[in-house]
Design brief:
4-stranded mixed sheet
């Protein structure tokens, strides 16, 4: 049978004819009715759902596969720009599966070469805002007329979405922002709203060299999804470009990688988790956009490994955070910090109003098992003359960081600054309470760095010095409440700005186990040691000192500054700090003195000064004791000891300073200037005892000068106007030792009080007292309480009285104790009494020659009376017979002539008599007693007293 015959037989069958007719009708209906209806309904349904007109070339219907294909659909925005477009959208229903499952089933849904453009206009309107408004209106109408419906049953065996480009632009900004994601592919298999089992899906996208892969399973019925997400080399530039108007930094480079597993359940309440995740930021480079000063933040890699987060437990867990190649470059000036300014965004004005605060954010906790940071920092400090510090390497290790505060997190920070200073901080901190403890170790910090900070307070610069300090800190609420410290400041040197020479330096200042209790406001220093201290005090040629300009004029600075209102203390007075220094040890210190105002310069030094201060405390009931010893210029011992309490409102001090056998030859420059004499030789020993109590200082200065010998006289306008050689002769004993005791007193709170001026004035007054009353000093030497400076005589007589010989004996004893003294004996007379005395002596000689005896003269016997009458009658004068014998005697005496020369001779003879007694009887050296024959009646008592007076002025050998 031929083929033709077979076809005729088949189609000639009745059932076959019916089927064929039905098929032809089905094709006709599909072509003539279904296809036009789909082309009309597609646009109508889209418009009903979106309020927009959907344009397309054709909606075709495949009657064999039942596939519906929408060709080249487009949706345009109201401004006629494209919202989205596709090459085709195809839906392939499965009639058989639908009938068998009683569930609408699609074999496939496919969208190819989709292009989406999401944009925001300059008026801050999204290009899909009209769609949202249309749907909101529909939703409101449906809510009012119908009850909420369950998810309709639907099965789709395969959904394929191919997005050629996903564009985004924002014209509401100053600079229009544009970005896109290209080649996005999404595949979902066996999608079902009726199956419990999840259906696999796959999403893949590429953009700017980055790739996103998202795959897993989703179950609509069960309301859950799980899968894996992978982001590879995703550039951060688009995100930065979008937020650029609000960010003060430029992102030059940066990308991220992410891999992880997720699970989401939204059936009853939203629950989600991410596990086995890793987030990596790579090659980040941020630069500040400010033209004033630049800051930079970057790193090669920031990795968050084994990241786990779950909403049911509200816990974020990270196995390790690693930050490698950290690079920071920034600056700070006062309260401005460049890095903070660079990372602080400028939010829109209404950003705070739009911010949403999470009520349960506080319930979330985090646990990071380990954090490791390595890198370098460059930091410029304006306060340190724009010094730029290089901190490299910088390492931070932190473990077991729990934000719930269950345990403290151990950490360790290590850094090297400018290749010489090392810093190590190690301890633990509770991230919730911010309580913790740490040990810090700072080594070799150059103190020259702080010179700019000294300028407002000190006109000096630190030339050298390294600080090393180790500290144990206890923290509460991030604030230190206690510390234990030990450290050193080594090789320190300080120079005034106005001087080329150092003011102070030391080898090492060290402290041990220093404890500071900030809660109880107590400081305790068991031991502070200062080794090799050296200071230099200089008086310049202009008479100023190297200390005068050391401190700025605070008063002037205060006048310039605006006055601040006085604080009103409404509460209790502040609790004072307690302070205890158990021991301060000073080893091998030197205190140098240089006076350039003298010619030649004067230099002296206290050296090898060693000792200790113990028990210095703020407890005002206790006194600190100190004892130091050293030498002057390497040979003369010096000691300082005593007790003090400086923390009293009126401090206490009881101090004794002793110098022994200082060579006075070196002080010749000072003696020339201020005493008018050079010093040839001599030794000085001084015992200075000073007491300060109740605001008053009292000092006893015991000065001993051994074998002091003055040199030539020097004219000086600054010299004291006192007979210094006489004063020294009066003070110098038979062993060549001169002793001077000078007391001073005053009130240090008196603005006019100057201890050096007070001491100098006291010395001058003491010397003046000695030279103006020298015989009082001589009398004191021999225990006498009378004036040894004059010898009295009877009228007209040169004979020594018994009292005179006694006084001369005392005077000789005093002279033996002061071998440098030379006496000048000046005889004096009384014109009245000595004239009568000389006349009486002549009359006595005549009467004795007439045969009278001394007894007759003394008792005025009749023989004396007879002789007086006879002598009166022999006078060549008118005689008065009524005169008594005594009157006749007086008249006879008046006839004896006594001249001024007679009186001067009497005065000289008296001084000679005194010298003879001292030299011949008391064995005083002849050259130590001089007779002064000068009679000057203008001098006090010169012609009105019968004495020999001694003078010591200008008579020292």
């Amino acid at each position: 049978m031929s083929v033709h015959q077979r076809l005729v037989k088949i189609f000639g069958h009745k059932i076959t004819r019916l089927l064929w007719q039905a098929y032809v009708i089905y094709l006709a209906v599909s072509i003539l009715i279904v296809t036009p209806l789909l082309n009309w309904a597609g646009a109508a349904i889209y418009q009903q759902q979106t309020g927009r007109v959907l344009s397309y070339n054709l909606i075709s219907f495949n009657p064999f596969t039942l596939a519906i294909t929408l060709h080249h659909p487009k949706d345009r925005n109201p401004d006629n720009s494209r919202f989205w477009a596709a090459q085709k959208i195809q839906v392939n229903p499965s009639l058989l599966q639908t009938l068998l499952r009683f569930t609408p089933t699609l074999d496939a849904v496919e969208l190819t070469q989709v292009k989406v453009a999401v944009s925001k206009s300059s008026a801050n309107q999204w290009n899909f805002a009209d769609i949202l408004e249309h749907q909101a209106r529909q939703l409101q109408q449906e809510t009012e007329t119908t009850a909420p419906a369950n998810i309709p049953p639907l099965v789709i065996h395969r959904i394929t979405l191919g997005i050629q480009s996903l564009e985004f632009s924002d014209a509401s900004r100053e600079d229009v922002f544009r970005t896109s994601v290209d080649e996005l592919e999404f595949v979902l298999q066996d999608f079902s709203t009726v199956k419990d089992a999840g259906q696999p899906y796959y999403l893949r996208a590429r953009s700017s060299g980055g790739e996103l892969v998202w795959q897993g399973n989703v179950s609509v019925k069960r309301g859950s999804s799980d899968g894996q997400l992978s982001l590879k080399n995703i550039s951060l530039q688009p995100a930065w470009q979008y937020f650029k108007p609000y960010l003060p930094f430029t992102l030059r480079e940066g990308a991220l990688d992410f891999t992880g597993t997720y699970a989401v359940d939204w059936q009853s309440a939203l629950s989600w988790s991410i596990t086995d995740s890793r987030l990596v930021f790579k090659q980040l480079d941020l630069r500040s956009r400010s033209s004033e000063k630049t800051s930079r933040l970057g790193f090669s890699r920031l990795s968050l490994d084994n990241l786990r987060v779950a909403s049911p437990t509200q816990l974020l867990e990270i196995e390790q955070v690693s930050l490698d190649g950290l690079s920071i470059a920034s600056w700070s000036e006062a309260d401005r910090i460049g890095l903070v300014q660079m990372l602080t965004p400028t939010l829109p004005e209404n950003a705070s109003a739009r911010a949403v605060k999470s009520d349960d954010s506080a319930a979330w906790n985090a646990y990071i098992k380990a954090i490791q940071i390595t890198g370098a920092v460059e930091w410029q400090l304006a306060e340190l003359n724009q010094h730029s510090f290089t901190i490299a390497p910088l390492e931070l290790h932190l473990t077991d960081l729990r934000t719930n505060g269950e345990i403290a997190a151990p950490f360790r920070l290590a850094a090297t600054i400018d290749a010489q200073t090392t810093v190590t901080i190690e301890g633990d901190i509770n991230p919730l309470t911010l309580n913790g403890s740490m040990a810090t170790d700072l080594r070799n910090l150059p103190l020259t760095w702080v010179n700019p900070l000294l300028q407002p307070y000190l006109n000096a610069e630190i030339l050298a010095g390294d600080l090393s300090v180790q500290t144990q800190l206890t923290l509460r609420d991030a604030a230190p409440v206690g510390l234990i410290s030990a450290g050193t400041v080594a090789g320190f040197g300080l120079r005034p700005l106005a001087s080329p020479d150092e003011l102070i330096r030391w080898e090492e200042l060290a402290w041990q186990d220093t404890r500071v209790d900030l809660d109880h406001q107590h400081i305790e220093l068991p031991l502070v040691t200062l080794n090799g201290f050296d200071s230099r005090f200089v008086i310049t040629k202009e008479g100023t000192t190297n200390l005068q300009t050391l401190f700025p004029d605070i008063e002037k600075e205060t006048e310039k500054a605006p006055a601040e209102p006085a604080a009103v203390n409404a509460g209790e007075p502040a609790t004072p700090w307690e302070f205890t220094l158990q021991k301060f040890a000073l080893n091998n210190a030197s205190f140098r003195f240089h006076d350039e105002s003298l010619t030649p310069d004067f230099t002296a030094a206290v050296q090898h000064f060693t000792g200790e201060l113990t028990g210095l405390t703020s407890d005002t009931q206790k006194l600190a004791a100190f004892h130091f010893k050293g030498d002057v210029d390497g040979y003369a011992p010096v000691t300082l000891h005593g007790k003090t309490q400086p923390f009293l409102a009126q401090p206490k001090l009881d101090a004794t300073l002793n110098f022994e056998n200082m060579d006075l030859g070196g002080f010749s420059t000072y003696s020339s200037t201020y005493a008018g004499w050079r010093i040839d030789r001599g030794l000085l020993t001084a015992n200075l005892h000073y007491r300060l109590a109740d605001g008053r200082i009292v000092g006893d200065n015991h000065i001993v000068m051994d074998q002091l010998q003055l040199g030539e006289r020097v004219r000086s306008a600054s010299a004291m106007d006192i007979p210094l050689r006489l004063a020294l002769a009066l003070l110098t004993d038979e062993n060549g030792v001169a002793t001077l005791d000078v007391g001073i007193s005053g009130r240090p709170d008196d603005p006019s009080f100057d201890i050096s001026k007070v001491i100098w004035a006291a010395v001058r007054n003491t010397l003046m007292k000695i030279v103006t009353a020298p015989f009082n000093l001589l009398a004191n030497l021999v225990g006498a309480d009378e004036d040894l400076g004059e010898i009295k005589f009877n009228s007209g007589s040169t004979q020594l009285l018994s009292n005179a010989t006694r006084k001369l004996t005392l005077l000789e004893d005093a002279l033996s104790k002061r071998p440098q003294l030379r006496l000048e004996a000046r005889g004096q007379y009384d014109v009245v009494t000595d004239t009568r005395g000389l006349r009486a002596a002549r009359a006595k000689a005549i009467l004795l020659a007439e045969g009278l005896t001394n007894d007759d003269l003394k008792k005025k016997t009749p023989a004396w009376q007879k002789q007086i009458t006879a002598q009166y009658r022999r006078l060549d004068i008118p005689h008065d017979k009524s005169l008594s014998v005594d009157e006749q005697y007086a008249a006879w005496l008046n006839t004896f002539p006594v001249t001024g020369e007679d009186l001067r001779r009497l005065a000289v003879e008296r001084s000679v008599t005194v010298k003879q007694f001292l030299v011949e009887h008391l064995k005083v050296s002849n050259d130590r007693v001089l007779v002064n024959a000068e009679i000057n009646c203008s001098r006090e008592k010169a012609c009105t007293s019968r004495t020999v007076v001694f003078d010591l002025s200008e008579t020292v050998q």
